[in-house]
């Protein structure tokens, strides 16, 4: 595996170290062109040789920064070729920098810079053709611009420039496409992370609400029954025995609920998964509250126009459970409560009231998690929840859950 896909590693290294690669290749090309230009210039005077070497240096040295400063490199190379025209129809090896820079600008330059460089290249091909052929015919005193050889030369140079620009433009489109695909993949990955975090947070909130409903309700009943059994054990042991049985049954039911939640977290199929409570289990909930010593009046009116979703029924059940739990915890002794379910044409209305004391500080904006969780549950189904002290004493919780209109 060490030597697998070496071309990919080389390509990645070149892309990651483009400045170093440009400097090294540009320097090597510059030195080679200077050597060849100096060799050509030996047949002329020393001044001509130095001039050609300087022009060659101007035409090749900018290649060392062709991707870092492509437009500046293009302007310097263009100026170098304009100087070359002053020396007639000489052909220098450094002129190979023209197709290189045309390709580079097509890949990395801005769009207007790319087309401008293409225009420079085509104009340079025309001027080079004129310079070469007119310098060859100057001794005869003629001007042979429009001739077959002239056209062939111009077409050949223009074709080199056009092909270089075309390949560069194709490489540019591929680079932009790959960048767009990479950006899209990065954006999708970020969205997946955000969605996963939101789903995890939502699940944690859901589990926290379930745990609060189970633990708070069950422990309230257990504590109330245990206190009653402690006092009854002195005068009437039989009542204490019945009370302790209620404590035991409530504890076992809570343990089953806890095991169900933990089974969902562990995805353990062997753990018992009891069905979630619905409105049909409200009577059992009321009986448990009565067993805890709370007098509860239960009633309902109307009939459902359509069934509520299972989650909405669970929300209604948990709202009643939370409200009765608060009555047991905060209302004090000798408290009576009422639970009313009213089916209307719009949905289900719940009203839980008591005549106790001690709940005056409880509101939806308070510090308790129970009422907040109740409000959040109801809001998931586009419902409303209000909890506030009653005029004259006691506390009232009203909940409305509308039908889901498909």
TrEMBL record:
Could you tell me which InterPro entries the record lists for this protein? DUF7134 (IPR055558), HATPase_C_sf (IPR036890), HATPase_dom (IPR003594), Sensor_HK_TwoCompSys (IPR050482), Sig_transdc_His_kin_sub3_dim/P (IPR011712)
Q: What class of enzyme is it?
A: transferase
Keyword Transmembrane helix assigned: yes
Q: Which UniProt keywords apply?
A: ATP-binding, Coiled coil, Kinase, Membrane, Nucleotide-binding, Phosphoprotein, Transferase, Transmembrane, Transmembrane helix, Two-component regulatory system
Q: Does the keyword Mitochondrion apply?
A: no
Q: Where does the sequence pass through the membrane?
A: 21-40, 71-92, 112-133, 145-167
Per the record, its GO cellular-component terms are: membrane
EC number per UniProt: 2.7.13.3
MF-aspect GO terms: ATP binding; phosphorelay sensor kinase activity; protein dimerization activity
Pfam family, any one: DUF7134
Give residue ranges for domain Histidine kinase/HSP90-like ATPase.
Answer: 313-403
Q: Which domain of life is it from?
A: Bacteria
Report domain Signal transduction histidine kinase subgroup 3 dimerisation and phosphoacceptor positions.
203-269
Chain ranges of the DUF7134 domain: 11-175
From the UniProt record, list the coiled-coil ranges. 171-198
Q: What catalytic activity does the UniProt entry give for this protein?
A: ATP + protein L-histidine = ADP + protein N-phospho-L-histidine
Which PANTHER family does its entry note? NITRATE/NITRITE SENSOR PROTEIN NARX-RELATED, NITRATE_NITRITE SENSOR PROTEIN NARQ
Q: What protein am I looking at?
A: histidine kinase
Q: Which organism is it from?
A: Glutamicibacter soli
